[in-house]
Structures are given as structure tokens and as C-alpha cells.
Amino acid sequence: MKVLITAGGTSERIDQVRSITNHSTGRLGQAIAEAFLAHETVRIDYVTTRSAVKPTASEHLKIHLIESTQDLLTTLERLMQENTYDAIIHSMAVSDFTPAFSLSEQQFAERLNKETLTPGSLPSWFAETERTASKEAKISSDTDYLFLTLKKTPKIIRSLRQWQPNAVIVGFKLLVDVSKDHLLEVAKKSLITNQTDYVLANDLTQVSETHHHGYLLSKNGEVIEANTKQEIANCIVTAILK
């Protein structure tokens, strides 16, 4: 069985020394990979970041390091072209936004003096400013305020079914401090929108180093509850292998 797992959190560069990232450690992906590796027939391509924790080394495990969402997209496109996967577990915390451009307080004021911004003119202003703003190797700290504009990154999970139409795909949905009913409702919509076979729904308020509560939903309506990363990993592996 050939499995692809993504884990950890992407990092989006502001300049050569600064980045925007998230707090994902990759521990859940590590647990999932090691649960799969307990089965000798499984071979894993594992896409992660340098700072994330890694599964125990194995001849059945190949690690691919990425940094940004664009790196992830490029790597996954290549792997999908080179391999046919039986299962894809997309547990990586992918950045929703990436820096487009930054302006110092003075630069921002100068641009505002040149034109009057309205809601209708904002899209073209963003596009033109991104095209013309200087891309410094290191943004100067000689400003009281730094205006940083972010733009949306592509939703990679929505391409997985197109790339691998026959794979069993597991997505993840993380919300913060919501009711169980709301969490499950959003997860069900995610199953449909992203065309996955399963989705692991969890709430950040119920995630810690020792505790990780979540629900594994399948497209046929089955819901399995788990309380630790190891339990989640075992649920996912059992669902894939059954």
C-alpha cells in the first residue's frame, strides 16, 4: 500500500529573515505515520517541514521537506504525477494567507496621497501595489508602523481528488471553541466541498500535548470519537486498511 501524509505547518516568508507561521508541531502526523508503519506492507511519502517532529526513521518512509504553501503545492503536484496512492492523509496546517507586499508608514502615506481609495478601486490597487512595491531582502525596522498585506493561498485539499481520483482521502477541520453540533456540521460540509472520504474534526480548545479530542467522520455518515493523538491515528489507519 502506498500512502502520502502531510504534517506540520507551512511558513510564509515576509522577507529573508521574517516569516508568518502557525503552531502545528506535526505530532499528529507523526503518530499517523508510525501507526501505518506498524504494517509492513505500507510505504509512505511524508511531506513536512524542518521544524516539525518526524516519525521514527524507516526504510518504508521517505521524507520530503517543504516550507511554504507554494512549496507544498509544487511538491504534491510532482508526487501525484510520479505515484499512485492508495491513501492520502492531509493533516498539515496549511497557511490560509501569504504576504503579498509590505509598506512602511511613509510609503503607505505616499501611495494614499497619489489616489483616493474606494471599495471598488481596492482590488486593482492591491494588484498594482503588489506588482510595484519594492521587495527588500530585509524590511527596514525604521518605521513605527508596518503595513503588511496578505493574500489567499490556494486550497490544496480541493485538488487532491482531481490528482488522485481513486485514493482514500482524509482531510482535517480545526475550529475554535464551538459546540459539538457546529463542529460536526462544518466537518460534513468539508467532506462534500473537498470530496474527501473522511474528515477529522477537532476543536483547538480540546488539543494539548497529552490530550487531543476529535471525531473521524466518513462520507457514509459514520462518526468515531477519539481522545488522544494515538487514538486518532489508530482510527484513521483502521479505516484505511479495513
Structure description:
This protein has 242 residues and is an alpha/beta fold. The chain has two domains: 2-96 and 154-241, 3-Layer(aba) Sandwich (Rossmann fold), CATH 3.40.50.10300; 98-152, no CATH class. Helix content is 33%, strand content 28%. The protein has seven helices and twelve strands. Helix 1 (27-37) packs across helix 7. The mean pLDDT is 95.
CATH class of the largest domain: Alpha Beta
Percent in strands:
25-35%
**N-to-C order of helices and strands:** EEEHEEHEEHHEHEHEEEH
What count of structural domains?
A: 2
Please give the oligomerization state of what you see. Answer: single chain
Largest sheet: 8 strands, mixed
Computed CA radius of gyration, to the nearest angstrom:
20 Å
Overall geometry: elongated
Helix content: 25-40%
Order of strands across the biggest sheet? Answer: 5-4-1-6-9-10-11-12
Runs in which pLDDT lies below 50 for 5 or more consecutive residues are none
Distance between the termini: 12 Å
Q: Which architecture of the largest domain would the CATH scheme give at its second level? A: 3-Layer(aba) Sandwich
For the secondary structure, the number of strands is: 12
